[in-house]
Amino acid sequence: MRFDMAYLSAEDTKKIRTALKTNFKQFKFSVTRAHYTGVNIAILSGPVDFDASKHENYLQLNEYYPENYSNGNIFKKMIQTVDKAVANHDNSDAQIDYFDVGYYTHWSVGQWNKPFVKTSK
């Protein structure tokens, strides 16, 4: 069995940032690398808030269930854009508590110290 640690380079983070900003011009993002193992993607402003207004304009998103949010189809396209920009693999096996991913993604609408700003459509 091969054990690789999750890793995301600064160059990969830049590719993700560029892909999101290119494909979703009506949104503003913060894309930062997290501990060399993943990426934090915060949607700072845009025409839809994915229900963040119900949570004081800050909401952590679960990428495995985009359909749980209003306008989940847009969120799903964002996830696909990130996956296309930097390929990721998931060979995890929860039955043996083994996690093998290329990198982790952490999504939010707004940030804990900076609420989401809804813009006009």
Structure characterization notes:
This protein has 121 residues and is an alpha/beta fold. 23% of the residues lie in helices and 22% in strands. It has 2 helices and 5 strands; from the N terminus they run H-E-E-E-H-E-E. The protein has helices at residues 10-23, 72-85; strands at 28-34, 38-46, 59-61, 104-109, 117-118. Strands 1, 2, 3, 4 and 5 form a 5-stranded mixed sheet that branches. A hairpin with a 3-residue loop joins strand 1 (28-34) and strand 2. Helix 1 crosses helix 2 (72-85). The protein is globular and about 45 Å long. The chain starts with 9 loop residues before the first helix and ends with a strand.
Write the layout of secondary structure elements.
Layout: H1 10-23, E1 28-34, E2 38-46, E3 59-61, H2 72-85, E4 104-109, E5 117-118
